[in-house]
Amino acid sequence: MSHHMIEAGKPATKLKSEAVQVLLERGLINQCTDLEALDTKLSEGPVTAYAGFDATAGSLHVGHLMPLMTLRWLQRLGHRPIVVLGGGTSQVGDPSFRNEARPLLEQQQIAANIAGIRRSVERLVDMSGQDGALLVDNAEWLNEFKFLEFLRDYGSQFTVNRMMSFDSVKSRLDAHVPLTVLEFCYMMLQAVDFLELSRRHDCTLQIGGSDQWGNIVNGVELGRKGDGRQLFGLTVPLLTTANGSKMGKTAAGAVWLHPEHLSPFGFWQFWRNTADADVPRFLRLFTDLPISEVDRLSTLQGAELNEAKKILATQVTNIVHGPEDARAALEQGDALFAGGQELAEPTHRMDIAQLAEGLGLLELVVAAGFAGSNGEARRLVEAGGVRLNGIVVEDPRRRIASGDLLAKERLALAVGKRRKALIAFD
């Protein structure tokens, strides 16, 4: 079953391992380099698996949750996760499906980002004990390489022809967007990570987003050529909502996992506002609830479906922020949705400098997660559904100025009766 797409929940042959069974059932497998061989390996005893994240910000975001949930399930089923933070690769930037180069970061900033990310990762996988999950920084080995040595040892293992065939590179070239040698070499670095992890920690499985497929395949091939090792690659599906848009992004940026970037209540509210059609899939992907309970919640309709959304929001918040913050968010949500009470704590934070640059109302509605695009926000405003500090605003060209801010540099935004945000400008 080499190198092809997997339809969630439909294995081609009888499975041997509980791990593959669970991952398929929950919809966490998109592609696998050899699912049958991986299934056999997972059934034979504990396997070490890794997912890598570049430390380009001080927090991971909901787009990273799927590979992390995959590691979480593997650990629960007796396997060992490694989370690799790219202290080395963050100095380069992954070009995958980007149409511009990523800004390069200073060492100090990378170190601070790694410290922030560690906090979220520790909640998702258990790092305690001798066999606990490992957190590894790829700067450990990438910073040690001398250039000529690296070229001699690894440059000979990659052909430009093969690298050009990957979609991540092809899409840049087809769009006539410059692709630097620095970025082109990124996939070599990721392949070397896999080889090093297999040597140091007997890691045989890499997990990543579907945009990482080419980089992962390179690592599997390098393991075979370099060490004669059998390595495996597995990608999780690209996360889109039922209407086809990429999930978890707003105009103000991503839906962050770290509480300093987005409050636990803001995070809870993001999940509580899930579209009806996405509830069953998100319960499978982002909670630890048994499939029987997911199936029961998935059949709910109307007002009962809102209960399912609250369960989804509370479960995900519990996994990411812990039980206390999840309980507090649920209570705040209940009070807000039931009695129309005003919010006490900010749900979102924005940079006050954006006001000076002329922050548009539509941009604000999208940033709060109440609309997927400026067009959708415009329709909400024109229908009289948007209130700023309790007053209906009907001009979609309205700009937000510092004079609009309430005490403590805050701004109350509401869409309809139920969706409310309290935005703090720092």
Descriptors for this entry?
single chain, about 425 residues, alpha/beta, Tyrosyl-Transfer RNA Synthetase, Structural Genomics Hypothetical 15.5 Kd Protein In mrcA-pckA Intergenic Region, Chain A, seven-stranded mixed sheet, RNA binding, ligase, ATP binding
Nearest-integer average pLDDT: 85
- Spatial arrangement of strands, main beta sheet: 1-2-7-6-3-4-5
Topology, number of strands: 16
For the biggest sheet, the summary is:
7 strands, mixed
- Helix vs. strand class: alpha/beta
CATH architecture classification of the largest domain:
3-Layer(aba) Sandwich
CATH class call of the largest domain: Alpha Beta
Shape summary: globular
User: How many domain modules?
Assistant: 3
Low-confidence stretches: 94-100
CATH topology of the largest domain: Rossmann fold
Individual helix count:
19
Function: Catalyzes the attachment of tyrosine to tRNA(Tyr) in a two-step reaction: tyrosine is first activated by ATP to form Tyr-AMP and then transferred to the acceptor end of tRNA(Tyr).
Subunit structure: Homodimer.
Motif ('HIGH' region): 55-64
GO molecular function: ATP binding; RNA binding; tyrosine-tRNA ligase activity
Protein architecture, described:
The chain contains 19 helices and 16 strands. It has 426 residues and is an alpha/beta fold. The chain has three domains: 2-236, HUPs (Rossmann fold, 3-Layer(aba) Sandwich); 241-341, Tyrosyl-Transfer RNA Synthetase, CATH 1.10.240.10; 342-426, Structural Genomics Hypothetical 15.5 Kd Protein In mrcA-pckA Intergenic Region, Chain A (Roll), CATH 3.10.290. A seven-stranded mixed β-sheet has the order 1-2-7-6-3-4-5, with helices on both faces. Strands 10-16-15-12-13 form a five-stranded mixed β-sheet, with no helix packed on it. Strand 8 (249-250) and strand 9 (253-254) form a beta hairpin. Helix 13 packs antiparallel against helix 14, helix 13 packs parallel to helix 15 and helix 18 crosses helix 19 (374-382). The chain starts with a strand and ends with a strand.
